[in-house]
Amino acid sequence: MRLDVDQFDNLATHTQKGIDFFERFGNFIRDRSAIEVEYALKLRRLVKNYQPKKSKEDEENEFSTLIAFKNVLKEVTDLAGQREVVAENLQTQVLQGILLLSKNLREERKKSLNQGALLTQSLHTQIGTLERAKRSYEKAFREAEKALEGYQKADADFHLSRADVEKQRVNMNIRNSQSEDAKSEYANQLQITNKLQQQHYQTALPEVFNRLQELDEKRTRGMKEFIKRSADVEYEVSPIIARCLEGMVKAADSINEKDDSMIVIEKYQSGFQPPGDIPFEDLSKPDPDAANNSQTHNSSTGLNHMTGKGTTKDKLKKRVGIFGIFTGNKNNLSTDGLKEDFSDLPPTQRRKKLTAKVQELQQKVAQEQAASDGLMKMKGVYEANSTLGDPRTVEEQLNESINRLDRLRIELQRYQKLLDQANSQTCNQHSPQANRVIQNGQRASRHSNGSSNHENNHDDNGEDHPDDAGSLSRSASESSVQQAQNGLNINNNGSASPESGLGTSHTSLPGSGQGSTNEQPLNDEYYDADQPLGTCRALYPFDATSEGSIPMSEGEELQVIEVDQGDGWTRVRRFSSKGWEEGFVPTSYIECTLYA
Fold first, then answer.
1. For residue 16, is it within any domain?
2. Domain F-BAR, which positions (predicted)?
């Protein structure tokens, strides 16, 4: 008897494949979650790699493109965060549910299969019992028929005795009884088997199949729910992602090319005046300056013995020597590499820095004043009621606060004077008279350099060379470089360089010990006294510590020989016990009054 019509094994195989597919979907969710996490990490690493470096200058003058890019990076960071949220929700809400359901499905399937196998085994056992009962009945029936046949033969045989016939009759009755017993057993087992088989196929096995069906439907339904849930995870973060994209669009809309251009203008606006027109030099006409130089050379001996005005006293300090001043006074530099008075910046940038410094000091003064007032009140309270505290404990703090306040006020006053001076210089530079003075100063400087170059190079045909002032519209750094290059033509023997800071010129005052006419008959230099461009008054004392500078005391009056060319230094002349001296002093330390 075959029992393969119930397709139990096929159902078991189908449910196993279904659970395996469901677990494969769980592996897909796990791998996708890992990809989301990796994507978020790569986005964060990307933002970190492309994050602009912070600097004080960028914070003060941030371009709209830079601000927009920073905002885009913030939005990308938020996007990375949302991808992490997606990965986390996929793991907690989808993957864990899949693993739990898969575990339950496997347990239910195993339980159902075990129950089905038990039912099938019971049915097979009962059928085996029925088969044995049937075989016993068949055997007993054949033996009963054989015993009946032997009795009939013995009863018909007249040669046998009645004892033999009776023996065959008893054997026949026994066999018939055994056959009836086997028949009854067979009938009984058949009834039991039919009942069990009916119960197996109509009740027990369908229940197992129903459980397997519910199990498979639960798996299918779980697949449906978890696919929807994985989509809902994306839906939940989509509004935030949309806002991130809107933020990127808003960042793009915030870019303003005009504002960026204004930032560049404000950042690099120097405030220098453009140079004046280059005069036409007619070589066919005699140069009065050359005649004056020749006349001065012929009468230099008498002038030198009479006064010191005809020459520089010891050395003619040229601007190339100012490089030594820059490197010598390291204490005048602030933490950001600029001078404390910002004299190395162009005028406009210097005014901005001074204004910011004044505002910063005003805030510090206000804060320190508030702290001092608070300490004063506390001291008064302690003096009124000594139980609250000892006023002597506050007195030391109060003295320190007052000292700090005094220092801040002195520094504020200094920077306010520097700012006022910078503003006044700007006003003077923009006036027509100042423009004329600057042009005259440029011409005098060209004449000075031209004569020096003529002494050093006799084949230049009297051509004018660029002076150390350069263009007023250049930046301070360009002016310094140009001055260094021009300074190389000033020195007679090439003994100075911009790096050394020793840009001096040999003088020919009698008895100066710097050389004689016999040694250098062609290189003795005699200079006409430069006409002063104005006067100046020293606001602060200055100790000359570098080559090319001269000392001055507070309130001292000096003559302005050459105005500040953007490097923060002004060439002045002073009269001392040694005679006339020329050199450079910080522009921020003096108050200039230029002639009209």
1. yes
2. 1-260
